[in-house]
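Cont'd.
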Amino acid sequence: MASLEKNPHASIFAPLIRAADAHGPRQAVEFADQTITYRELLDRSLRLAAALTEVGAAPGALVAFSFKKSIDAIVALFAIARTGATYVPLDPTWPNARLQAIRAAAPFEIWTGTVTPPPELGNVAAIFTTTASDEATRTFESIQKSHEPLAIDIVPPANDIANVLFTSGSTGTPKGVQITSRSLLHFANWGVRTFGLTPDDRLANHAPYNFDLSTFDIFAAVAAGACMCPIAEQLRMFPYRLAQDMAARGITTWYSVPSALALLVQRGKLTDHDLSKLRRVLFAGEVMPKPLLRDIAAALPEADLANLYGPTETNVCTWHRVSSQDIEDDGPLPIGFPIDSTRAWLIPDESSASPIADETDTGELLIAGPTVTTGYLNDTSLTNDKLIAAPDGDGCAYRTGDRCRRDEDGVLHFLGRIDRMIKARGHRIEPGEIEAALEACNDIKEVAVIAVADETFGNRIKACVSFDTNAAIDQNDRQTSLIQFARQRLPSYMVPDLWEIWEYLPRTERGKIDYRALSSGAPLSERRRS
Amino acid sequence: MSDRQQLRDYVFGELLPLSNANRPADDASLFDHGLDSLRLMQLLVFVEEKMRITLPDHEVTPERVETIDSIVGWIESHR
């Protein structure tokens, strides 16, 4: 345990050792009708780690992590962490084309998941799943019998990269953000201190594993010795059932995107359920609309509300505790102040020189601190573009691409993006990635993707397309064909909700697509053909 | 137009667009055809506003919304 004290940020496995030591018999995870204690979680992850080590899991290796919400997912996560390998979360619902692009960028040879990898991914050397079993695949259950636990030890991952989270990339290829152990542990420990988490707390785990929000529920729960309660995917669709489930499990702490809270408050009929134990409601990932904030405050008067802010590259970097004043006034909710040991600067939007020392009251937000990424997997040029020398000379700072304002009290306010990135249902979406996917359709001549404001979901995605004159696509069935085409290439949250067919897309004088004209739409409607 | 026809037109024409040839049977799971949380809420709003039927939130369960058949049965129980 000496190595643990010397370097507490060496591995995300360290807090599990501590929790098993201090809170061994307490519940670590509760899912459906199953529970597992911290002692059992440690034991099971050490057995799986033994099997993973045999097939080459070690510092520098990438391990695919493709799970539905389950106890086994948490076992696998800590098993991978024990070996020192880096885990790569892949959503089980992503289409094969996206998985192929990710494997090309992150060439993993070990797969852990609820089910086996799709054959389109090609040969994966070692496969571990919770359900399927054949000659090439080993199940978690069989490993619990066939393997003794690996010794308790801390094996730091190569370059401190604990996991790689893939987000939408503007050129059409998803980009892998490298998240360090230091970032995850700093964020978790900050959360435990700031929100006063104790072993008696029960944290809902709502966000998918490929989403940085989920790292709070997992690592803050373990750091506090609290219990995490993963929420089954299907329950997320049924707010009334979800509220019932939260009440039955005695959830104390909730962290999600605002749109998930919108469903819960608008369709969960919260007055039917005893949610008096719910004391903290945290949200991040997109702008919280004020009417929704008021609904949440009215439905959950006992709960503390907090707005957490941060692109995946910075994990969470600023936060704001919601006051009664915030609920009353009409202005947008601030993103607040930097979290511990984190520095924030505003730099002129047009400036690209680094380092940039002059500070203004409005500009692009620049973040430095322990939660900031060390860069993108195998993409030095993008890394050099986004990570610049920090103005105070202490390490690197990340250019968020978010325009912000600092008010007279030093509070930060989010104003918007300086590029075209869209936030929808908490996911960040590069319109360029959707456009690139649709351009692969031979019949499409031009395509442009824009955001359309939506009361509940923040934004919806609209695709404006024009066709080749000799397009083979069925005239009457164009929209349907396009949706099917998009579904085979993009995750469902990136498939456009709205489609508009144009004869040709409006262009600016310089010949670029005129996104402003597309958004206003009306003046050009006579050119539309649908 | 019958409830069933109106519902099918909306679900496969707008909500989860599918060409006529690809539309599944009325007992096929809509979850396999892209029904997610956002689209489910849109479906409920359609039933409430366009078909003028109030569906209680506590009745929104996987069993009731999974297929065209189950949704039609649910709607009819509130007519």
